[in-house]
Amino acid sequence: MADELPADNVNPAMALAGWLVHNQMLADGQATSARYAKVKASLQAWDKLNGKTAAEFKKEYGCECKASGEKKGIEEVAGIGI
Known about the structure:
Largest sheet: 3 strands, antiparallel
Order of helices and strands: EEEHHH
Number of strands: 3
Low-confidence stretches: none
Mean pLDDT: 79
Shape: elongated
Distance between the termini: 23 Å
Number of domains: 1
């Protein structure tokens, strides 16, 4: 999700972006454009998720989702292409 805040006489326009996982804020970013706010939020999310196993992810975020088929790594569950 991302949204831009309008500029006023004191502050420049600002954009906010965030990643939600099961209604919990995973990461957020703030920049002068939505594009860069999304990049900041995505990098922060990557830092938090990189290296986690599916079991660690599920425990931390209260995830009870079931993946179809075989066990998958966190990269596949999160939809991260590596």
